[in-house]
Design brief:
The chain has helices at 3-30, 39-46, 49-60, 65-71, 81-104, 117-122, 124-139, 142-182, 184-190, 200-224, 228-247, 261-275. It is mostly helical. The chain has a domain at 77-275.
């Protein structure tokens, strides 16, 4: 059996397991069988469906699990430590650029925490800065721990499988599409990220966003040889999502941040900058 066929089988198994686990977890949420207070726990556990899919593929290939996980990028060393922190900083650049573009386009930009009691007590700028620092700490700790459950699949297994054959750009589109469609039930049935667009429009925008983010994450994966910088970027996106949404006064999330047109333009700007940086491969895993 050719390596290509083996890889295709592995990809199909991975997608089937990752999607099945996640979609089954979506059912009680969509049908409102569980209480709302438990939904965040389900969504957090859902993030480890890709990890379980990777484990399934490894077990079926009868390879040592710990060795394979290390090869897929669960590693951190002094040589790539800086990318761990850079990854978490990327969404802040997207946030700043998105806010700038909003201002230039004439949208109303506000301090997202100005109305909080603490902001009135200590000053909105002071509290905003403190909040941004707090989100960064969350991004590189608890948020990274949860995001790693996805990243070992998206920027770990899929990177190793697709990058040698399709290159960075096409791999980013493929991975971004798989990543976005993995969220499809949440978007279409619950309005996740797009409460005004529970349809193909919202899903299409999310595919675009995930593809651009994947391009940046694959760069971090390639130069660091680790999925952890991609996980910190993913974690920071989740940490900043609330602030992004409240910073620009646009009712329709399709045009705002963190998953609308402003975010897409800002992320594309970062991706274009990344594309100009020479790719010096550091600690990259060998392709399977």
């Amino acid at each position: 059996m050719s390596t290509l066929i083996k890889n295709l089988q592995g990809l199909l198994v991975y997608i089937a397991v990752a999607y099945t686990i996640a979609y089954l977890m979506d059912i009680p949420v969509i049908l409102k069988i569980v209480e709302m207070k438990y939904v965040p726990l389900i969504l957090a556990a859902r993030m480890y469906a890709p990890f379980l899919a990777v484990i399934t593929v490894i077990v079926l290939t009868r390879k040592p699990i710990l060795r394979e996980l290390k090869e897929l990028g669960i590693r951190l060393s002094t040589k790539n430590l800086k990318y761990f922190f850079i990854g978490a900083g990327v969404p802040y650049a997207v946030y700043a650029l998105g806010t700038l573009y909003a201002y230039l386009l004439g949208f109303r930009v506000v301090n997202p925490i100005a109305e909080l009691p603490l902001a009135k007590m200590f000053g909105p700028i002071t509290v905003l800065i403190t909040t941004l620092v707090g989100t960064y700490v969350a991004a590189i700790t608890i948020n990274t721990a949860f995001a790693l459950g996805e990243e070992i699949g998206w920027r770990g297994y899929l990177y190793i499988l697709l990058r040698p054959k399709f290159g960075t750009t096409l791999s980013s589109i493929i991975i971004g599409t798989i990543w976005a469609l993995w969220h499809a039930p949440l978007i279409l049935f619950l309005g996740y990220n797009y409460p005004h667009h529970r349809d193909i429009v919202g899903l299409g925008m999310f595919i675009l966003i995930c593809s651009v983010w994947s391009y940046i994450m694959l760069y971090l994966r390639e130069v660091s040889g680790s999925v952890l910088p991609a996980a910190t970027m993913h974690g920071a996106i989740n940490a900043l999502a609330g602030l992004m949404k409240l910073t620009v006064d646009i009712e329709d999330e399709l045009y705002s941040m963190p998953v609308g047109m402003l975010s897409l333009l800002a992320s594309l700007t970062v991706a274009i900058i990344v594309a100009t940086i020479p790719r010096t491969k550091v600690l990259t895993s060998s392709s399977k």
